[in-house]
Amino acid sequence: MPPSDASALINFDQVVKRFGDLTVLDHLDFSVAPGERVTLIGPSGSGKTTILRLLMTLEKVTEGLIEVDGEPFSHMPRGGRMVPANEAYLRPRRKRIGMVFQQFNLFPNMTVRKNLTEAPVHVLGLSRGEANARAEELLDLVGLSDKVDAHPTQLSGGQQQRVAIARALAMRPEILLLDEVTSALDPELVAGVLDVLRTVAETTDITMLCVTHEMGFARDVSHRVLMFDKGRIAEEGTPDEIFGDPREDRTKEFLRSVLDNGH
Amino acid sequence: MFWDFEWTFQILPDLMRGLAVTVQATLLGYLIALVLGLAIAMVRRVPVVGTAVHAVMEFVRTTPLLVQLVFVFALAPSTVSALTVGIAVLGVHYSAYTAEVYRSGIEGVARGQWEAARALSLPASRTWGAVVLPQAIRKVIPALGNYLIAMFKDTPLLLAITVVELLAMARQVGSADFRVVEAFTVVGFLFLLVSIPSAIIIRRLERRYAAV
After folding, report:
1. Which residue of A109, A160, A180, A209 is the best one to mutate when testing the B interface, meaning the one whose CB has the most B CBs within 10 A?
2. Identity of the residue in A58, A108, A167 whose CB atom sits nearest the CB atom of B118
3. Are B49 and B111 in contact (CB under 8 A)?
4. What is the CATH number of the domain that holds B38?
5. How many CA atoms lie within 13 A of B80 on its CB side?
6. pLDDT band at A261, cuts 50/70/90?
7. Is the pLDDT score of A263 beyond 70?
8. Domain span including residue B135
9. In terms of CA atoms, which chain A residue is nearest residue B134?
10. Averaged pLDDT, A237-263
11. What is the pTM of this model?
12. Which residues, in sequence order, are CB contacts of A143 under 8 Å at separation 6+?
């Protein structure tokens, strides 16, 4: 069962997201507890990625409210009402959230080191020395210590994505959003990236929201799986429940189609 | 004699002084165009203000430089030198073009770069200064270089507002002695002397940056 609102780190309250006439999220309610790892599955266009993008403030909610750590996040109180959060309100709060993208989105004009130290230095106020030490530690974690002075274009997709994971972790986020992080990778590179994420899951208490088609990975690391369909949660449960004994036909159908595609 | 070498060498120092004015006007005007164009390209992304700035720049771009020069010179206070007016008008006029070049470069930066910067909470100064502009400007260096040459070739228009640049100097010394052929031929060579090396440098830049 979802945790009660009081202890939730993330809470979606009747969240609606529309793009023009298209309703992507339809009065969505759900909560994530601190340290919980939640995997979002479902057919494409079911709104999973939009949830991550709303939390990263890359999109704005159309209706409803997102709360983080019991505080309004998508909105802020002003003059006794809730108004959409402005940049000054979001700035300190957004820092607690990190995201890894499907297309890596490393900065190609910077070395790996610069990619990892830019935000810790200019956002968290770390000294160059501290940021470098942190970067080297994280590159060690993702197995790329020898690439510290390389440029992203000199790395394989899998290596780039591991650097991108390290870049997100360098901000010491409480919440890590993973948006189809292996979908753009050649099949032989997927395992390396997932191994890194397994280590992160096992060795930290970072709250993770993960959109993925890697069902084996989802089963291994997540505490809870949410099955989305048409902007709503069609079914939710433990990985064993969802993958072992799904109740809803939509879930069964989706899992069958994913497995047939060789994922 | 149709071509008087001795006379040609005599006028050369005067013409070189004219060339110095031409180069000065070009470089200073270009500096304005580079800085102001970038500012315009960035402001254009701001709602309302951006639209207003765009309208003004469209007006500047679609009216002749010569008309702008004469117009501003007529309105400028007499304490401002003709050369200063010329440099300012050249710079502003070309900033309308460089702004478009910068804009295309900025729009060419992948959306994911903006999103990654936001996901890392980078302040606007770092998002622009460390992420977007280094990628955008790299791509448009060749296009910006072409405007340097175009601007250089437009400097003779300054003679309309009494700036004695290369062409005006040639006209003065040439018509004084009725030897316009030598004077204008040398002017042509001097323009080539500057623009050919510039074009070669820009071609090199193009080759170096276009690959990335």
Report:
1. A109
2. A58
3. no
4. 1.10.3720.10
5. 13
6. low
7. no
8. 5-210
9. A109
10. 86
11. 0.86
12. A162, A192, A196
Res A2: pLDDT? 45
| pLDDT for the residue numbered A170 | 96
State CA A55 to chain mean position distance. 9
What average pLDDT score do residues A113-118 get?
96
Average pLDDT, chain B: 88
Encoded amino acid at A157, one letter? G
Residues in B touching A110 (Cβ below 8 Å): 130
Distance CA(B118)–CA(A105), nearest Å, equals 11
Q: How many CA atoms lie within 13 A of A151 on its CB side?
A: 7
Provide the domain count of chain B: 1
Q: How far apart are CA B67 and CA B71, in angstroms?
A: 6
Structurally, chain A folds into a number of domains equal to 1
Is position A140 within any domain? yes
In whole angstroms, what is the distance from residue A144 CA to residue A166 CA?
A: 10
User: What is the token pair recorded at B78?
Assistant: 């007499």
Evaluate whether residue A150 is within a structural domain.
Answer: yes
Cross-chain residue pair A109–B134, CB shorter than 8 Å: yes
Contact predicate B184/B170, CB 8 Å: yes
Q: Which member of B112, B120, B135 has the closest CB to residue A119?
A: B120
Which residues of chain B have a CB within 8 Å of the CB of A57?
A: 118
Q: Cα B204 from chain centroid? A: 19
- Domain around A138: 106-172
Q: Within a domain: residue A114?
A: yes
Q: What is the pLDDT averaged over residues B77-89?
A: 92
Tens of pLDDT, residues B145-202: 889 989 988 988 888 887 877 888 888 888 777 777 888 888 888 888 888 888 888 8
Residue A128: inside a domain:
yes
Is 60 exceeded by the pLDDT of residue A1? no
**What's the CA gap between B210 and B87, in Å, rounded?**
30
In the prediction, which pLDDT does A77 show?
A: 92
pLDDT at residue B212 greater than cutoff 50: no
Nearest-angstrom CA–CA distance, B55 and B48: 11
pLDDT of residue B210: 60
Q: What is the mean pLDDT of residues A16-22?
A: 93
Identify all chain B residues contacting A86, using CB atoms and an 8 Å cutoff: none
